[in-house]
Design a protein that fits this description.
Oligomer: homotrimer
CATH architecture of the largest domain in chain A: Alpha-Beta Complex
Number of domains of chain A: 2
Largest interface: A-B, 72 and 68 residues
Largest sheet of chain A: 7 strands, mixed
Number of helices of chain A: 17
Number of strands of chain A: 11
Structural class of chain A: alpha/beta
Shape of chain A: globular
CATH superfamily of the largest domain in chain A: 2-enoyl-CoA Hydratase, Chain A, domain 1
Helix content of chain A: 40-55%
């Protein structure tokens, strides 16, 4: 594949509102200037594999906050987000090594592959039978990017997200899924077959893209053990009740509306603040409390000393009585909405905030 | 301010049941001998700032378990617990440094300020433009104290607790808030304007007093990302459903009754056990599982070797059949209540338990 | 006690389906070939103590995945799972040391006892007044075994599980409890007296077998503080709503049916995958996110390179269209069930998967 240009303010990826095939398994479009939709297309079952991961990493690395404020990750195959990771690829790896290997040795090999990739040898590794090591590392790098880029990431789940698909969705900041909230939907096998879950154990495997980690941190160890040890698949309704999803919508049309609306409103946020919040929650929140607190405070300093916050704060202070007044004349409905839905102030690079700061300094 | 005396058994802070102005922004009263209420008063919007934090730290440091067993933190301004942290103070800091600074540099400066405060230079720092560094550290010290003192801490939320106010409430052991549980209350803008949330991102900022850390640990990363990235404010009802609040009450009168009753019942507990539980949960619970387990076991040893537990255990063993009997004559209602509501045995210093231990040894 | 033989494929512990007294406080039976039920019997109140823990450890160490795939932990005393840990034993320890001791010193003593046990001196220590140190370490070792053995562990809670009983249940992978889901059951004192909770603080103590750690990780710090600081006992219904239980059943008969059915279905799983999932969730999930991710990936490699996964994956690939088809002919009900309930493929040692692998290599 030809190298992908990184975005600049004037040249964002896929400038049109219609789908553009960016690479063999990815299409992109822009429903709104600062919102990039990425659709994975690997029919018939939309399996995740090393190639898809490699293309996804390329795109995520090319994004710049000057051009893109929110990313929507979806699929191009009806009723399927991602069926699961390619079992053939895992089987090839399993057949390669005829004897059991301990977890520590695998970790050592992964560390070695990370180093060799750093020196540019990943392309080579991927042509050898050791490719699955490169792909496991790629998986880790893609989910790490989703959790650390200064863009909001939204998983738009148009159908089944099992195994590796579930894990990719869990690495996004928000998850919206098509499903029904009707009575008895939890036991509806058709709903379950378009649902979510980590069925790896049915094949004697375990999640390998962060499923055990994200489920434990989202739901606690009891629910994580339940899902991973039983391997049971759950409907969108049950996933919403558990807290795996942010919202359930009824069909593809509503899914697009909801995710694009969410992305548009979030894409106006301060990219530094988005990145700092994601880092504080994912990295800081997984450390000891004292370390996490310090991490948050450092991030707070970074966000508050950036150019965007200064302008927003001074604008807010001029209107503080409107926002905080509690007397009879208080009309919170007029003031809360812009504050919270992001229309209060444009904090995108090149927007009012940054220009004002430039003037000031 | 004149230095505050530390409490002794005979001279607790604010001995009366009526409000006493302890310092420029704090009032205190004792609704019950071992319960101290602290009200923050900084009208009109009850903003949190460096001065309030400094006064809060003084009071928390002065508390002694011999005099105080539970602390209720509330506000003196109707319908407002704390609107948020003073934006003016953050803006002054932001204006001071005209170029972006990385999170690591801020963490380094905070560590330097902590050291200089240790050698007594905080008063000096607070008179320079670097005061916000001192205040960030002060914030961390106050929430750390709330999480580690041997007193039960209860946030009595008489109204809006946004941003810094939400973070201060989250550092307490229990949170009770005025609100309505009526249908549709989640979308009622008036309820939301008296609710709770972390709207920092609306001003291009992020929570800086532990919001991302406490939300992640309380609710998991998905809900924490939702609240911090959207900045949406939520009603007391939604906060209760999420698990941010322990109880919602209908008005100020009920708020006082509930929090004081809760505080009175908890104030009879063994202070060492309270401190050990808080440490095990906050510190141990944020470490790796093996480290956390060892931390709990060490704390268990400390609590069980203290003077209070010995007397309580021997009293319990004399009556064990009453508590554990399961036959037809069993009357659990008679025995469970005193065990659980704290009236079973007085474990306050100077109470029966400690006197008995003194006799024994 | 005579040393217990470790299990081999042909000689599992307690081969019969009727109860066998294995040691003074334990009975075992096999309701199904790969399912071992262990009942604790220490009437009248089924208190946990050093002897019970020592016997439990012996049995858990003797298990081999070739013979046992799932363990059900229950009690032999009607309406009582485990009342709590023996208060007499803690009191003896407390009386031994007439002065307060800091948590750090206790941790040091526990580390010393661990070392001396490693060199075979635990039997000696348990005959001295320092026995409680050995028992605290034993407690830690038993709960660690429950969280790390390659067998599924199910707590079959036939009644009250307070204090140490609650902690032992929380160390299992699944918890099923007898109780009622009727209206108002949360406040029913009879239901509460057969419920669950950590009432240690009522005696001036704190949980010592991992209660603060497991509750914090399962429910977050707010709920953990609520339960441990108030010491309140809760009914099975409330415990289910909180997420402490996986299921509530109405009586002993249903309890046996449900737990045995659950165990039978899980006992066919790949033991390596079970162990890897438990390790990823408990150990990995308590580390920082980056460390946890690496731990999971290492475990994934170990599971996928074992003999069971290879055969399962190749069988699955032959039928992938049946499982993943979404057209009008798709009949997910026929294919999802065997995949998820464990009948899809027998991955027990000696089963089809392993024999096939032996042939191949």
């Amino acid at each position: 594949m030809a190298p992908l240009q990184t975005e600049k303010a004037g040249e964002p990826l896929s400038t049109g509102s219609r789908w553009l095939r960016l690479s063999p398994h990815l299409k992109t479009r822009r429903p709104s200037p600062r919102v990039l939709m990425i659709a994975i297309t690997n029919p018939p079952y939309n399996l995740l594999d090393g190639n898809v991961l490699s293309e996804l990493k390329r795109v995520l690395l090319a994004l710049r906050p000057t051009a893109t404020g929110a990313v929507i990750l979806t699929s191009d195959v009806p009723e399927i987000f991602l069926s699961h990771y390619s079992v053939q690829e895992i089987l090839d790896f399993s057949s390669l090594v005829p004897f059991p290997v301990s977890a520590g040795v695998v970790r050592g090999l992964l560390a070695w592959e990370s180093w060799s990739a750093y020196f540019g040898f990943r392309g080579l590794t991927r042509r050898t039978p050791l490719a699955p090591l490169a792909h496991l590392n790629l998986y880790h790098e893609v989910t790490h990017l989703l959790r650390s880029i200064p863009q909001i990431t939204i998983a738009s789940l148009n159908g089944r997200a099992f195994g590796g698909g579930c894990e990719l969705a869990l690495a996004c900041d928000f998850r919206v899924m098509i499903g029904s909230l009707a009575e008895g939907e939890e036991d509806n096998i058709a709903a379950i077959s378009r649902g979510i879950g980590q069925p790896e154990i049915a094949l004697g495997l375990i999640p390998g893209g962060g499923g055990t980690q994200m489920l434990t941190r989202l739901l606690g160890p009891a629910k994580a053990l339940d899902l991973c040890l039983s391997g049971r698949l759950i409907s969108a309704k049950e996933a919403l009740q558990l807290g795996l999803l942010n919202q359930v919508v009824k069909d593809q049309k509503e899914l697009n509306e909801v995710t694009i609306e969410m992305a548009k409103s979030m894409a106006r946020r301060n990219p530094t603040a988005i990145q700092c919040i994601k880092d504080s929650i994912h990295v800081g929140g997984s450390q000891s409390l004292a370390d996490g607190m310090r991490r948050e405070q450092g991030n707070f300093g970074e966000a508050c000393l950036g150019p965007e916050a200064g302008y927003a704060m001074s604008t807010y202070l001029k209107n503080i009585d409107k926002f905080l007044g509690t007397g009879e004349d208080a009309k919170p409905e007029e003031y809360y909405s812009p504050l919270v839905n992001g229309t209060f102030i444009d904090m995108t690079p090149g927007g009012a905030a940054r220009q004002n700061k430039r003037k000031k300094t």
